[in-house]
Amino acid sequence: MKRCSPLRCATQEKHLLPATFPLPISYQYIEVNPYDKPASLLKLNPRGLVPTLSYQNEPLYESNVICEFLEDAFPDHGPRLLPNDAYQKARCKIWMDFVTTRIIPGFHRFLQWQPSDSAPPIDGVRKEFLGTLREFAEAMMEKDGEGPWFGGKKIGMVDLVLAPWALRLWVFDYFKDGGLSVPAEGEEGDDAIWKRWRGWVKAVEGRKSVQETMSEKEKYLPIYKP
Q1: How far apart are CA 20 and CA 212, in angstroms?
Q2: pTM greater than the 0.90 cutoff
Q3: Across residues 142-166, what is the average pLDDT?
């Protein structure tokens, strides 16, 4: 099995899954420049999308699809990252989609914001992005007030999908005036929802598989520089 991942994109979640619960397979990881796609990738996937997974010479792409496929392809290998209960599994997929369609685009909008006559105020862009993080934290509170993971005491696929992006939130403090501005403990605006968020981030940062698949901050600076 081969996995082609972009050199300059956050695709840590595909590496987190086998690193969190090693699968009974061997695989080859290939980094590609998404702006100079090699013929080997285009032969496998003419659309040139990354990440791409080659399984039995058949391509798969899209981060969440690949993560779910690896879970389904090896049903006897556990523990499972998605619940067995049909409703709880569907709920997790809703929030995986929320990460993909709301949080990640908001991350990029905030990071790419530049002052101009036509640009909205940065405070509005920041508030919009913080709103998506808070909405995610509210969903965690609704599911399990203690956590630390999205579904409670055990890490799951929702956590792996968001973890790489959560670990890159420092880029806003580095590049943007005012930073991200998630309230610290005891600061104005702090409450139980932000406490739940901070607890989740702390759990992510302390996870061995996350630490082992995260690149040094210095490698991200030229990538995320506006």
Answers
A1: 10
A2: no
A3: 91
CA distance 40 to 49: 12
Residue 207, token pair as written in the block: 């996870």
Whole-angstrom distance, CA of residue 147 vs CA of residue 139: 11
Q: What is the mean pLDDT of residues 188-211?
A: 92
> Is residue 217 classed as helix, strand or coil in its secondary structure?
helix
> Please, which residues bridge with residue 31 across strands?
5
- d(CA 3, CA 6) in angstroms, rounded, equals 10
Q: Does the pLDDT value for residue 178 go beyond 50?
A: yes
Helix (H, G, I), strand (E, B) or coil at 13: helix
Tokens of residue 163, six digits: 């973890």
Q: How far apart are CA 181 and CA 127, in angstroms?
A: 9
For 97-129, what is each residue's pLDDT tens digit?
999 999 999 999 999 999 888 889 999 999 999
User: Which element (helix H / strand E) includes 9?
Assistant: none
- Chain centroid offset of residue 192 CA: 23
Residue 93: left if φ>0, alpha if ψ -120 to 50, beta else—which one? alpha
